[in-house]
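Notes from hallway chat w/ T.B., transcribed later so I don't forget. T.B. wanted the structure written out for a chain they're using in a teaching module, and asked if we could keep both sequence and structure tokens in one place. Agreed to drop them here.
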Amino acid sequence: MMEGQPQVKATLRLGSELYTVNAKKGGALSEQLSSMKEESMSILKEFITKHNVPNDVPDELVESSSEDDEEDEQVPKKSHVKSKKAKIN
């Protein structure tokens, strides 16, 4: 391999999109891997930002599941209280 040429490259497939990541030329292999990691993280950050789901969708799901949990918790509490009263009488 020629001196100064990158020894590391990768292709990221994110959904239907392809991204090529090349290490910076020259330097030790560890330096090339480090530069490739930085470029990969930048690509991932841009991809996530571009394809991010609106915040209101997860909030609605969380709220509905929280209400379900509260209802589930109330039913056993009520039946538990009734059973205590039955034991006292």
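Follow-up for T.B.: Residues 10 and 21 are 5 Å apart (CA to CA). Might be a good example for the class.
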